[in-house]
Design a protein that fits this description.
The protein is mostly beta strands. It contains three helices and 13 strands. Its EC number is 3.1.1.32, 3.1.1.4.
Length: 300
């Protein structure tokens, strides 16, 4: 059996089993759903010390992600196309993401603040593209240093749970003319109520000199802030992430919707829909709509 057929078979079996399992695995003790305090060790009872590896952002595999407009001629704003001829790319590829964090310092600010280190890696893989020898179309690396402080007050009917900021670097590790990278200071505020969690994240890009800027105007396309709303019930999870450039002239951004359904224990099926700019760094100024089907290993 060929490599692409193996992936297709894996996807069909997983997706079909997941739909069947929705009616079979609904027990609360089979679903690990964490509160903000448990995820970020905010309350004294949830603190686990330093240098323990924890999940961070979503950890998933999409054996099939389809796009309506594959970026065959990537180019930065104001630059020539990176290639003389369009790349022979497939509109369906594999996407996966891994993400971890660990606490470096605990209780450093008034006995409550923490410093975390996070790392996220996302891949777009042309695994079905035999003609081009199945290359990785894009790999994005995102290390960050996160300062977090617990909160406990009512805000707009929600319980405010934490705030802080992070020093964030994101790049694709590629040479010119397809090199992409930027640095940000990302502020965050999170709150929850019953089955809802809300994250608000505005950021400031650290200026890059024009001659060294691989992706000019990236914040005009990917955005300057994002809001994430998560709703969970009976092992099912709805996740809506919205990014916006906060510009009154040419307003850009994106919307990503994720639906997870229980398969067994902590394994979940995942449907992901994205529309807008910046699905990854090479596509930062490229508009597209994607639909992906796969599995998720960690609660969002």
């Amino acid at each position: 059996m060929s490599f692409s057929k193996c992936f297709s078979f894996f996807f069909l079996v997983t997706f079909s089993y997941g739909l069947h399992a929705q009616g079979l695995f609904r027990k609360k003790d089979s679903i690990v759903t964490k509160s903000l305090s448990e995820t970020w060790e905010l309350d004294e009872k949830d603190r686990n010390g330093t240098f323990r590896l924890n999940s961070y952002k979503p950890f998933y595999v999409l054996p099939a992600q389809w796009t309506n407009r594959i970026n065959e001629m990537p180019q930065s704003v104001g630059a020539e196309p990176a290639f003389e001829e369009p790349l022979n790319l497939h509109s369906t590829e594999v996407k996966f993401q891994i993400s971890f964090k660990t606490k470096l310092i605990q209780s450093f600010l008034f006995g409550k603040g923490d410093i975390w280190m996070g790392y996220t890696q996302t891949a777009n893989w042309q695994v079905y593209n035999k003609q081009l020898s199945r290359p990785f179309r894009e790999l994005n690396y995102e290390p960050e240093l996160i300062i977090n402080y617990p909160l406990d007050f009512k805000f707009l009917g929600f319980q405010a749970k934490m705030a802080g900021f992070a020093f964030n670097h994101q790049s694709n590790g590629r040479p010119d003319p397809i090199s992409r990278s930027w640095n940000r200071v990302v502020f965050h505020f999170a709150m929850e109520k019953n089955n809802f969690q809300v994250y608000l994240k505005p950021w400031i890009r650290v200026d890059s000199s024009p001659e060294d800027d691989d992706n000019p105007e990236i914040d005009d396309y990917i955005g300057r802030a994002e809001a994430t709303v998560i709703y969970r019930k009976n092992g099912h999870s709805l996740n809506l992430r919205m990014r916006n450039s906060l510009s009154f002239n040419e307003n850009h951004g994106s919307v990503q919707f994720n639906y997870m359904y229980p398969i067994r224990n902590n394994l979940r099926g995942l449907i992901q829909v994205f529309s807008g700019y910046g699905e990854n760094l090479i596509d930062y100024n490229h508009y597209q709509t994607t639909v992906g089907l796969g599995i998720s290993f960690v609660e969002w």
